Each structure stands twice: as structure tokens, then as C-alpha cells.
From TrEMBL:
It comes from Lysinibacillus sphaericus. This is Protease PrsW. The keyword Membrane applies. One of its GO terms (biological process) is proteolysis. It is found in: Cell membrane.
Amino acid sequence: MIILLSAAIAPGLALFSYFYLRNQMATEPRRTLLQTFLYGAFLTFPILFLQYVLTEEGVFRYLYLQDVVFSSVVEEFFKWFVLLIAIYNHVEFDDPYDGILYGASISLGFATIENVLYLFSFGLNTAFMRALLPVSSHALFGVVMGYYYGRAKFSKLAKTKEMIAMALCAPVVLHILYNTILSFKGYWVYLMIPFMLFLWWFGLRKVKLAHYHLVQHLHMHKKI
């Protein structure tokens, strides 16, 4: 049991530590980040319940709509919505890089609980692949979401409503692409490798840009 839990939780903690330590300019309050992580963890249950009910009721005529489109949209929407109502206007969301941390935190909360449930069902032999794919992809979807929230809140040049919309649309598109690749039975791995390389490049580029915006933000405040 302890080994299984450790294997399920460790990837999320490792990825979050990586993004947290990338922020060398300021330290985000751990309590708020923990709360955001817990929001993501609690979201897992209503999302899984909703998916289960709609599947049992046969709402969708096509499996692609059910397993790929709906699954991607509902997961990213709930994370986006919670960030919008609980974190976006929070006093501790006070610089552009914070969006990266909060986005990664809520996504990894969701991914960690999902991973725990999955490993309890299918065993430790799936742990490595789960860490490489679902956990890391959720983290990167969250990074992209958080980047656009940071832009919406702190960029004077960006249009706030458009950036908030991008905070939802960009991770939804990436998630749909990810789930679409998984739906190609038999040869999905050949498509997943280049996609994950792109996703890491794209996510780390957003991290780098958020850090750049943070430097500019701090520089402007020093002038004031």
C-alpha cells in the first residue's frame, strides 16, 4: 500500500518541485499552493462521476466525442473555472510566474488522485508510463493555462478577456490532441513521442516567458 501510494504521488511532487524551483525571483506561499493542489485533487471525484454517469446513460453516440472531446473539455474547464473564481483575484497571485505555479498545482492535484486510483486498479507495473504520460501532460496543460492567466492579470498590452479565454482554449486543444493520439490503437506510441516532445518544449517556453514577464514586472515596481 505505502509503495503504491508513493509511486502514485511521487511524479506529481517531482514535477511541481521542478516548476517551483524554476522561480528564482520570488517565493510563493506554500499554503496557497497546497490549497490549489487540494482543489485539483477534490475536482477529480465530481469529474469522474460526471464522466461515469454520461457514459452509463449513453449520452454520446460516438466514442470519440465521449472519450476524447468531452473528457478533455470537462477536465480543463473545471480546472480553469476553479482558478478563475478562487485564485485569479487572490491577493497572493501577485506576479506573472504565479500563474505557472497555480496552474501546475491544480493540474497535478487532479493528476495525482487520478494516478492513485489508476495504480490501485492496475498495479505498479503501469507507474512508469503513467508518470511519463498522464501526470506530466496534465502538469504541462496546467502550465499553459497558468501562463495565460498570468498574462491576463499582469500584462498591460494583452487583452484580459482574450487571455482568460486562451487559458481555457489552449490546454483544451492540447488535451484533445493528447487523447486523440491515445485513441489510435496499436501505433499511438509513434505519435505520442513527438507530441510529448512538443508539449515539453511548448510548456517550458511558457515557463521561460513567464519568468521574463516576472523580471519585467519586478523591474517596473522598483521604478515606482
